[in-house]
Design a protein that fits this description.
Elements lengths: L1 H9 L8 H10 L5 H14 L44 H13 L4 H17 L5 H17 L2 H16 L6 H14 L4 H9 L3 H4 L2 H15 L2 H9 L5 H23 L3 E3 H7 L10 H13 L4 E3 L6 E4 H4 L21 H7 L1
Antiparallel strand pairs: 1-3, 2-3
Helix pairs in contact: 2-3, 4-5, 5-6, 6-7, 8-9, 8-11, 8-13, 11-12, 12-13, 14-15
InterPro entries: PCI_dom (IPR000717), SAC3/GANP/THP3 (IPR045107), SAC3/GANP/THP3_conserved (IPR005062)
Pfam families: SAC3_GANP (PF03399)
Protein name: PCI domain-containing protein
Amino acid sequence: EENKRRQTRSKRFENCKGGATVVKSFVKGRGGSASNRRASALKIALSCGDGNGQAVEDIDWDSLTIKGTCQEIEKRYLRLTSAPDPATVRPEEVLTKALKMVESTSKNYFYKCEQLKSIRQDLTVQRIRNELTVQVYEVHARAALEAGDLAEYNQCQTQLKTLYSEGISGCCNEFTAYSLLYIIFQNGSNRDLLSSIARLTPEAREDEAVKHSLAVRGAVALGNYIMFFRLYKTAPNLNFYLMDLYVERMRFEALRCMSRSYRPTLPLEVIARTLGFTNGAQADKDVLDECEEWVKAHGGQVVVDSASSERQFDAKASAATLFMPEPEDAVAHGDANLAVNDFLTRS
């Protein structure tokens, strides 16, 4: 029975050039050393190739690359479970039009994300790696940042690093600044951050966005909340969205510091200006209401001065009651992107 099974398996190679001879020798040598078995397996692979016994490096992989023929500009994203059909893959000129369509549409982020992932998939299966590829990943990364989709942004950022390292031009300095801020605010190790800073080119160090990211890194390392919120108000490009990841924590640390440093009270307007609730020189009523609501949500106490009717932060009474509340979008499994409401919205 064992011999019959072996013969059945060996018939798979009978259509190969010289396959039967190689298989027989392979079956006879099954009890030999590992090196003999590897050599026999290599002979089978070469004999079952194109008949020329080409090495992997000698095969013309370009002739095997998918060449798309689909002319539809809009296409849904579907995860591939088999070899792609050229009739469903769009060529480069159509993908260029699709990218322009996504950039100009007024539809929501979920639609844009699906279309951009579909474009990325068509580029990948056709092995297109040029300036169009960089533009697609840059557009998707910016859209993900604005929508707060950090998982998708991180995928795009990883691919962009590889594309930039291959010498393909794009907004390299802009995304270098984003990468630094992402490492800082996602609790990345000091080693990752120092390694990224060490790889900065002299040109990148002179870029305004990169300078801003390095200044933010210094403010976070020193706990300098005044400098942090000054940088927050003047953030270039989309640095603002990444700094948003740390604003809540920095505000809480600043409020704790103020509760220990100022006694007995501190004007609420000073807190609103210092912690970035307003960009103006003077906070209006709506800003003060927002600041008061935030202070109370973190255990702080606000009182009204009887003489001036001005709202004051009671630093002395709040020193022992401050706390960091749970995020409003927190879910049991820890990933807000997998929340049920978010899933229903996508559906």
